[in-house]
Amino acid sequence: MPMPAAVLWDMDGTLVDTEPYWIAAEHAIVEEAGGTWTEELAHQLVGNDLLVSARFIRDHSPVTWEPQRIVEELLVRVIAQVRERVPWRPGAVELLADLRDADMPTALVTMSWRSLVDAVVAALPAGSFTVIVTGDEVHNGKPHPEPYLRAAELLAVPIEDCLALEDSATGVRSAVAAGAATIAIPHFVPVPEIAGAVPIRSLAGLGLADLPGLAAAARHTRR
User: Fold this and answer.
1) CA angle, residues 188, 178, 206, in degrees to nearest 5
2) Please, what is the average pLDDT of the chain?
3) Considering the domain 6-17+87-220 in this protein, what is its CATH number?
């Protein structure tokens, strides 16, 4: 089983446990406008393009700002929390270090915007990611395949030879639609069975030697 040509990482929920930060920011914005936000509504936004989430917030609350401003207000709050503490997911930093030591090409493929991504990446060793694709730098966000196709293009590797790591159904569908072998690590919301992806419980204890088998298993589910 060949080693993947590159490993493509989602950020929120996969690399970092920032979903509670996002949900707290959503609650604050809606409540400041005189509304009520629920966990059920918040969970529907996990993994989404931020402008899609912003329109959802406006449609389900008294918030009347334009989507761009909603996103910017959310980012201010989440970035402030990240700067106080980056909540790494179990095993993520260790696996990323293994990939860096092995000179494995990596991409961060996230629907978060560049301002938040820069705050997270600044807490990692230099060169942890070969390329970065953010939600404000693509035309179509997840679950569209564009973000992952763009990452493979920047890395100059075939997307079919890449392994993607995702935590949400939206992200998994994006990676699978692009053609990447995909690992689902559900965290905040469940991920249904999706052809082209295999679920695992955690990145903790996962090493470079495990990746070929996982990629092969994910590809096998497409058949």
Assistant:
1) 50
2) 96
3) 3.40.50.1000
